[in-house]
Amino acid sequence: MNRSATLTVIGVILVLVALNYWSRFARHTRGPAPSVITTGVWVQFGEGFPEKEVVRQFCDKCSVKNVIELTEYTVSAATLEKTALDAPIESGRRIDLLVQESEIKAIYFLWMTASQRVVLDIPLHPDRMTLTDWEFLPGVGAKTAAIIDGNRQKFGEFGSLEGLRRIKGVGSSKIEAWRNFF
C-alpha cells in the first residue's frame, strides 16, 4: 500500500474512533447526536448481500421483504414458509442471507454491535447484548461481561435494565452509569 492510501486508512479509522467517543459523550451528557437522523430504522446488510457490512436507513414501516428486494435474489419456497417477510423490521437488526444459485435459502436475523447501535442512537436492550457488547459499556471488563452473560444463560432474560440488579456487583451506580445507553 502506498503512503497516500495508508494515510487515508489511518484518517478514516481516527474519524470513526472520534465519532464513537463523541457519541458516548453525547449520550452521557444526555445531549442529542445532531448528525444522526432518528426517524426510520437502521439495518445492517450481512452475509449474502452485494454490499456486505453496509448500514442503510429504511422507513419506519419497512418490512424484511423491502430489504430483500435490494438484492437480485429470489426467495426459496421453504424460506418463504419459515420467514414472515411482511413483518416490520426493527432498528438495529443485522440480516444475513444464505444464498445458493441466486436463491435465498435462509434468512438470519442478528443484532448490530452495541457500539454501532449507540452511534446510530438505537437504545440497547440487555437481552440483545453479546459478551462483546457488554464490554462496550463503561466499567465492564471481560470478567463482568462473562458474569452477566452467564447469568442470562442460566436464569433467563433480564427483561429490562433494572433486571440486571439480580447480578451480584451490579447495583444502582452501575445501572445509572449505563442508563443513557438503554
Describe this structure in words.
The protein folds into 3 domains: 1-35; 41-111; 123-182, DNA polymerase, domain 1. The protein has helices at residues 3-28, 64-68, 77-82, 114-119, 131-136, 142-155, 172-178, and strands at residues 41-45, 55-58, 74-75, 93-100, 103-111. Residues 27-37 have low confidence and may be disordered. β4 (93-100) and β5 (103-111) form a beta hairpin. The radius of gyration is 19 Å and the shape is globular. Strands 2-1-4-5-3 form a 5-stranded mixed β-sheet. Helices cover 38% and strands 15% of the residues. It has 182 residues and is an alpha/beta fold. The protein contains 7 helices and 5 strands; from the N terminus they run αββαβαββαααα. The longest helix is centred in the first third of the chain and has 26 residues, at 3-28.
